[in-house]
Amino acid sequence: MKFSSFLTFSAFGLSTILFRRKDPILGTIILTDRCNLHCKHCSVNNIVARDYSYRDIRREMEQLYAMGVRILFFCGGETFLWRDGDMTLPVLVREAKEMGFLIVNVVTNGTFPLDLPEADLILLSLDGNRAAHNAIRGDTYDTILANIRAATSGNICLYMAVNQLNKHTVAHVCQVAREEPNVRAASFNFHTPYPDTRALALSREEKKAVCRQLERLMAEGFPIFNLRSAFPYLIGNTFPTPCRQCVVMERGKLSVCGRCVEVPGLCRECGYFFAAEYALVFRGNIPVILDMLSTYLRYI
Question: Is the peptide bond before 242 cis (omega within 30 degrees of 0)?
């Protein structure tokens, strides 16, 4: 992370804590809900199955920037499927950088070639070892590993949603993150139980077991892009929701924190680690603030 970016984020955090501001710093733009996979834990793919126009996405980028957002995520669906004429994903990333966003990340399922050095991080979904991942996402594990090894930049962060089908494979994903040169770290979420995927959710005790394992792996030096200090809040879902410093834009609609905020009761079962981490940071939780500073400086 550039020192100037560090100063910007530090000033935002300090003013948010001192003056209890609710302005956003992190924004996500949904480029498409079209996806080439039908993952068992996903509730938001292929609902309208179309790409959103470049003009609309550009307008959303400008709106988020004007609101003060400086960390931008492009998500899907599958982001690498998006295009509008000659406009493709790398164009959006470059334009976001030129506009002034300080960190621009992309979320992908990893089944397309990873030629995106413009992005700060490519968050790539790997949901366990070959058997667990393929049970969730179809026969894609070997394709994803091949794409990781052929990537044109070492800006990949593995991204795993821990659920009943893959909870025993967390260490495997951490091992891949440590062994693959193009991967910086592994990042984890707990499954957030939309009504049609509730059976995949972990119990409190299962979440505790996963967090204990992550703590052991961190102590052993595995590259894990999560904040250990936030684990107790994630286990008990005791962090403040929704996180007002995070917003999502899809087809011109702005949602606070995430699209799941509109599902009754789902905030109380949120499994998104970043939502807990950001919410705690901007409430002035000192251990989480210090943990975030050291972790982000290490991996971004």
Answer: yes
pTM higher than 0.90, yes or no?
Answer: yes
Query: What does the alpha-carbon distance between residue 255 and residue 264 come to, in Å, rounded to a whole number?
Result: 14
Of 156, 75, 155, 63, residue with least CA distance to 101: 63
Place of tokens 């091992």: 175
Q: Cα–Cα–Cα angle for 13, 15, 19, nearest 5°?
A: 125
CA distance 101 to 128: 32
Rounded distance between C-alpha atoms, residue 8 and residue 148, angstroms = 32
Q: DSSP E strands: which ranges in 149-252?
A: 156-162, 183-190, 246-250
Distance between CA atoms of residues 29 and 36, nearest Å: 19
Q: How far apart are CA 156 and CA 167, in angstroms?
A: 22
Does residue 47 carry a pLDDT above 70? no
> What is the DSSP annotation of 63-122?
HHHHHT--EEEEESS-GGG-EETTEEHHHHHHHHHHHT-SEEEEEE-S-S----TTSSEE
Q: What is the pLDDT of residues 58-111, one digit of tens each?
A: 999 999 999 999 999 999 999 999 999 999 999 999 999 999 999 999 999 999
Contact 47, 4 (CB under 8 A): no
Nearest to 92 by CA among 102, 104, 81: 104
> For the chain, which residues make up each domain, given as ranges?
3-14+22-34+44-299
Gap between the Cα atoms of 81 and 195, Å rounded: 27
CATH number at 3-14+22-34+44-299? 3.80.30.10
Which of 72, 62, 57 lies closest to 27, judged by CA?
A: 72
State the CB neighbour count (10 A cutoff) for residue 45.
18
